[in-house]
Design brief:
The complex is a heterodimer. In chain A, 0% of the residues lie in helices and 53% in strands. By secondary structure, chain A is mainly beta. Chain A has a 5-stranded mixed sheet, with no helix packed on it. In chain A, strands 1-3-6 form a 3-stranded antiparallel sheet, with no helix packed on it. Helix content of chain B is 44%, strand content 7%. By secondary structure, chain B is mainly alpha-helical. In chain B, the strands form 3 sheets. A 3-stranded mixed sheet of chain B has the order 6-5-7. Chain B has a two-stranded antiparallel sheet with strand order 1-2. Chain B has a two-stranded antiparallel sheet with strand order 3-4. Chain B has 12 helices and 7 strands. The chains are: A mainly beta, B mainly alpha. Chains A and B meet through strand 1 of A and helix 4 of B.
């Protein structure tokens, strides 16, 4: 399983705009580069990132070959209720990673 | 006319000319006074500094987490993990990386942290040594290095290390390569200036292994030194070569007292 780092504020006031930061380890091999023996390395990238907040999708991003290794994705949302944020990355070769974070909204 | 245009459009020509300008304009190398030393961190932009400071945005932490897992994984025919001998790294490894490169009586010369890890692997775990720049070796070095975060760099500069420290200093001040440049000409004499638009730092290696955005990966100090030598059109050495370790030793002495930043982020 790929390593991921998630930064979600543990607490927020209802209606606050909160920033969410995610970082995941992935080579993001674009599929154009030759290896040391001259053979082109096949593409191996994450192509979709989805964040849902208590089951509802709040953010989605398509990723392409030009995205650097270890993609860092930051976005913001409105803290509406306490609960669970789920982060899911999917990609080539059956790559899939899921992380969760909890938030308390007062 | 076309010939001139071709000449000036070649990056090699431009670097060579730049080198020639550097050499004629600045002649004498002098060590930076201790009070004027700055980490590479101070030369970075606001965003890159913020990336390093926050453990959830610093990509180097991905390797630190890998290293933490490797620390307690059994390996080799001895079926031992690092933790079996050293216990909890957060206490046993505190300050260790700040003292490296350190003199190894068995090898009769200073060794760097990666070499120390590999000696543990071959002698204690009875496992094959990890390749330099391999993900696992970088991860373990980053995890051990992290335990010294914020502590002052303090190598043992004594009778045993002196000849190697001197050799490292000689390499730092020796002009070499087709551009006939020394490390000192950039990092002692012209720090704060620009080289091809990028700031020239003082070259204090306090954050290794570190995440370079250009590499899109963590990398060791020796990888960085190889980059510099290559840029000077000088001879590069095999990773783990004694020449690099001597230079690492001198750089650590030069950065004595500065805080360890492992894992740092650099552009």
């Amino acid at each position: 399983m790929a390593r991921a780092l998630i930064n979600v504020p543990a607490k927020a006031k209802r209606g606050d705009v909160i920033e969410i930061k995610t970082l995941i380890s992935h080579p993001m091999e674009p599929g154009y580069r030759p290896d040391s023996s001259g053979v082109v390395m096949p593409r191996d990238i994450i192509n979709l990132f989805v964040c849902s907040y208590n089951g509802e999708e709040i953010f989605r991003a398509d990723l392409f070959a030009a995205v650097a290794a270890n993609p860092f994705i930051a976005f913001s949302t409105v803290a509406t209720e306490s609960g669970k944020l789920e982060f899911k990355w999917t990609g080539d070769n059956g790559f899939s990673a899921v992380e969760t974070a909890t938030i308390t909204v007062e | 006319m076309n010939g001139w245009r071709r000449l000036f459009s070649s990056p090699i020509t431009i670097i060579a000319l730049l080198g020639a300008v550097l050499i004629t304009a600045f002649a004498v190398a002098a060590e930076i006074p201790l009070s004027e030393r700055k980490s590479g961190y101070d030369f970075m932009g606001r965003e890159t500094r913020a990336m390093q400071d926050d453990d959830t945005t610093n990509p180097g932490m991905l390797w630190v987490l890998d290293g933490e897992a490797l620390w307690s994984r059994k390996a080799g025919t001895a079926d031992k993990s690092c933790a079996d001998c050293h216990g909890d790294a957060t206490t046993s490894m505190k300050g260790v990386a700040a003292r490296y490169p350190a003199f190894s009586p068995a090898r009769g010369r200073p060794i760097n942290l990666e070499q120390r890890i590999n000696i543990c692997r071959t002698d204690q775990q009875k496992a094959t040594p990890l390749a330099f720049e391999s993900k696992d070796l970088l991860a373990l070095a980053a995890y051990v290095g992290r335990q010294s975060h914020g502590m002052p760099v303090e190598i043992a500069a004594d009778e045993r290390t002196k000849p190697f420290l001197d050799a490292g200093r000689d390499m730092f001040t020796q002009r070499q390569g087709q551009l006939n440049l020394s490390c000192a000409q950039c990092h002692d004499d012209n720090w704060g200036g620009k080289l091809a638009g990028a700031p020239i730092p003082q070259g204090h290696a306090t954050g290794y292994p570190l995440y370079r955005l250009e590499w899109q990966s963590l990398g060791s100090l020796q990888r960085r030194l190889r980059n510099c030598l290559f840029g000077m059109r000088a001879e590069t050495y095999a990773l783990g070569a004694p020449e690099y370790v001597d230079l690492e030793l001198y750089l650590a002495w030069r950065a004595r007292g500065m805080p360890v930043e492992t894992p740092a982020v650099r552009p």
